[in-house]
Structures are given as C-alpha cells and as structure tokens.
Amino acid sequence: MESLWISIKTMPKMHRFQEWWKRLARAHPxxxxxxxxxxxxxxGQAVAIIISVFTAxxxxxxxxxxxxxxxxxxxxxxxxxxxRYDVAIVLPDDDDDARQLARLATRSNIAxxxxxxxxxxxxxxxxxxxxxxxxxxxxxxxxxxxxxxxxQVAIWQYWYNRKREYGIIALNRFETVxxxxxxQLLFGLAKMQSxxxxxxxxxxxxxxxxxxxxRHTSQLREAxxxxxxxxxxxxxxxxNMPLLNLxxxxxxxxxxxxxxxxxxTIALDSLGQFNLAWRVVQAPIALLNGAIAQVFLxxxxxxxxxxxxxxxxMVIKRAFLIGLAPFFVLWLLAPWLLPFVFGHQWVxxxxxxxxxxxxxxxxxxxxxxxxxxxxxxxxHWILIHAIIFTVIPLAWxxxxxxxxxxxxxxxSFLMAGMLLVLVVLADFAAKSYDRGAAEAEA
Length: 442
Fold this sequence. Notes:
The chain has helices at 2-27, 29-58, 61-81, 95-122, 124-131, 134-139, 143-162, 166-189, 195-214, 231-237, 240-266, 268-302, 308-342, 347-369, 372-375, 379-399, 404-441. It is mainly α. 48% of the residues are buried.
C-alpha cells in the first residue's frame, strides 16, 4: 500500500518532467536529437565498460593487441567501402536521389569487402613477417565480413539521419556495442580466450545489429520513380565525395589505425595496453562525437548562408564546456582507476590514458565541426590538413628515440595542437561561406 502511495505521488513529477522534455525538444530540436543519440551511446558504453572489466581479465594483452591490428585493418577498408557516398545521403532534397546514393554505396561496399577478403588471403606471409602473429594471419580474411556489416549499417544510419529517426540510430548503436562486447565475454567464458574469441565475439554484435537495422529499411528499398535520377547521375553529381571527401577520410583512417600498427611492430603486449586505454576512453568519446556530428551534419546542410559561422562557434563553445570537467577528472584519476577496475596487469594502460587526455579533449571539439568542410565545399582544406596531420604523428612514432610512454605523451600534444589548427580552419570556412551570401545580396 505504501509503495502504491509513493507511485501515485511521483506520477505528477514524472508528468511534469515529460512536459518539460517536450518543451525542450520543441525549443531546441538539435539538443534534443543529440540527447537521443547520446542516450543510446551512453547506455551501450556503460554496458561495454562493465563487460570489459571481465574480458580484461579473461584475455591477455597480446590477444587484445592482435585484435587491435585486426580492427585497424578493418577500419581502413571500412572507410573505402562506400566511397563516402553514404555521407551524401543526407544532402539531396529528393528522397529518390538519396535512395540511389544508398544503392551506389551498397554496390561499392560489396566490391570492396570482397577485395579485402582476397587481399587478406594473399598477404598472410606479410602479416606474419610484420607482426609475428600466425593467428592474425590465419583469421584475417574475416575482415571482409566485418567491413561489409560495418559499412552497410553506416549506410542505413545515414538514411535514418536524413529522416531524423534518431531513436532507431541510438538503438542500433546500443545493439552493436553491447552485442560485440557481450559476444566477446561469452567466448571468453567458453575458454576461447584468444584473438579468435575476440574477433568472433565482435562479429556477433555486428551481425546482430546488421539484421535488426536491415529489417526496418523497407522505405529505403522502395523503387525510385520514373523521373528519378539514375545511379550514374547521382554518382556524377556527388563526385566530390570519392574525389575529395574519401581521400580525407582515408588519410584520417591511415593515421588512426597506422598508429596502432606501428605500436604493434614494437610489441603486441604494448599494443594491447595502448588499445585498452584507447577503447576505454576514446570509444565512448567517439560515439558521442558521432551523435553530435550526425545531428549537426543535417543542421549544417540546412543552415542558410549568413548564419553558418554563428552555428559553428556555438558548437565549439558547447563542446568545450561539455568536455572540460570530465577530461580533468580523467587526467587526475586514470593511472589509478584503470588498474583498479581492469586488473593489476593494466598499470601501463592507466599511464597511457593520462597521456592521451590532451589529444582526446581537443578531438571532442573538432569532431562535430568536421562536416563544415563538406557543406562549404572546402574539402580540399581539410584534405591538406589531414595529410599533414597524418605524416607528423606516424613519422614521430617511427623515429622517436624515447620509450613508449613518453613517445605517446609527445604524440598527444602534437595531435592536440594540430586539431586546434583545424578549429581555426573550420571557422574560416564558415566565414567564407557566409561572406558569399553577403556578396550575393550586394
């Protein structure tokens, strides 16, 4: 009876909260959409971190190092898979053009995934020579299936982004993260405590998310009208995606994944330590960045000239305020927190996490505004920056005379400085775009 009375008393409060949230969503739709995506992200990452507490004790640092190499190779092919036509799905005014872009991206995905599988078979001796892992070389052909599922889910998510169905995207991200980490835990408990167990567990989550999201894409699969542009037409219209946006994204992928590949040539155990630090800290940040970036890509694409710089500066300011306190706490506690949570064998990972804080903190600011260069047709700016942004860290890792930890600390400061340059470039791109509107009116 007492519990019933408590429930009755709390009902008006819940109703007031729902009404407050509805008013907030109407007044600030962008923040509301970010909140939806971030909620799915946070829930998935919370489950993933809890599961990682157990998998970090079930799998060795070397197994995580081998898995990091596998995901690095997958990451490079996943960027190539759609030729970046998936990103353009949110841009056309007409849904039929968006559907044609999705079909084009899917065909490209199938071709690239098959090529990745064939290359994995052919490069087995090279993989053994470079990283000394026969297990990685043997099971690397699974990269084809991993790339296909990853890229196809991204294609469908951009369609739902176009439709502003952010709840579906949030649920899919939750399923992907929890399915992958949960699958790895199951294989670990089944005594497959090796690189193969990590790969198969990851595939469980990807395939699960793939089929669950694919079941809801009937609207995307509708046949285009007789007046619709052909696939060849949309490929030509959005040719800047493979010609300018793809090289930039590929350079970013080579940089991010090349860092892990170079660390892996030192020792797989060291890469395992780095990978745990990276996954624990960067993975939730990357998904939060993805939530903000996807929402603002649609907003940026619809923002009229004359108002873009104001929006960009607003995003920069809010991202800075959001990240300031959490990153300070992370820097303060990481060396103690990671070994306490994941086990004494991960002491080095805690030190690496602290070293990564400057880089990741600035990355939270730059990730959502990267789409500015697409909207303002300044992809060549970010491409030039990305090339420099790749050459410098990879050269430092290859030539550094320091041990691993101070090398990563210097790397973090280098990356943070170069990302701040990107913030300035984004502001200039938005200003140039707005100036075009003023000149046209004059």
